[in-house]
Design brief:
Elements: H1 14-28, H2 47-51, H3 71-80, H4 94-101, H5 103-112, H6 125-136, H7 139-142, H8 148-157, E1 161-162, E2 170-173, E3 186-193, E4 198-203, E5 212-217, E6 221-225
Antiparallel strand pairs: 1-6, 2-3, 2-6, 3-4, 4-5
Keywords: Signal
Signal peptide: 1-32
InterPro entries: CHAP_dom
Length: 231
């Protein structure tokens, strides 16, 4: 499980962030890249080209797969987690523990390497989104992954990817402003479009190591995944 695949929002405490990279790199036995670094794949010339290698990361959403869950319910569940914080090692949250025990972890371990234990202290923004989807019964539409890039490519492969901020959409960020899916570093839920060049969000694994409500510039958004909610 390569560390660069499990991206998080930049931490304010950079010394702690550097320590976290060292700890996780040691646990994974992988070449570590700073979690806030740009992970752009130069070979990916376009979003479409970036989709192809990961099109089978998760099964395509069957046409008959629907969920009786609204965007408002998903956002309410996400908001109820605001304040949840990681421990001094960057882990210990219920989102990481849930993912480590999930069926999906076995699948992503087969893809990325590592072990279930490695997820316990790994960057958890995508695990948070996945947990909210599972807890509300919207997992078939929200998806589940620990790697933000693969999570985004799953939406794109299922033709549920776009550039419009909608409540309940899954928003993917690149701090460099890149629009390349391979450059994605962070993920959360859209609460609303503020119509001033920013969006309001709920995100896990923010720069403060918590679930928080944030206002983000659209310039940092790579794109949006659209779960097909009820209503």
């Amino acid at each position: 499980m390569a560390i660069h695949r499990l991206s998080r929002a930049p931490k304010i405490n950079y010394a702690r962030a550097a320590l976290g990279v060292t700890v996780i790199a040691s646990a994974l036995g992988a070449h570590a890249t700073a979690a806030s670094a740009d992970t752009t794949d130069p070979a990916a010339a376009s979003a479409q080209a970036a989709v192809a290698p990961e099109a089978a990361t998760q099964a395509r959403i069957p046409t008959e797969t629907t969920v009786n869950v609204t965007a408002a319910q998903v956002l309410a569940m996400a908001k109820a987690q605001v304040g949840t914080s990681e421990n001094a090692y960057g882990g210990g949250t219920k989102f990481q523990k849930w993912y480590a025990d999930s069926q999906r972890a076995a699948e992503t371990i087969a893809r990325d390497g590592g072990s279930r234990q490695d997820y316990i202290n790994a960057p958890w923004c995508s695990m948070f989104v996945s947990w909210v989807g599972a807890e509300t019964g919207a997992r078939p539409q929200v998806g589940w992954d620990a790697w933000t890039v693969a999570h985004a490519k799953w939406f794109a492969a299922n033709k549920r990817w776009g550039s419009e901020a909608k409540p309940g959409a899954v928003v993917f960020f690149s701090w460099s402003g890149s629009k390349n899916l391979g450059a994605i570093q962070h993920v959360g839920f859209v609460v609303k479009d503020n119509h001033d060049g920013t969006i309001s969000t709920i995100e896990g694994n923010t720069g403060n190591g918590k679930v928080e409500e944030r206002v983000r510039p659209k310039s940092q958004v790579v794109g949006y995944g659209y779960p097909q909610y009820a209503g």
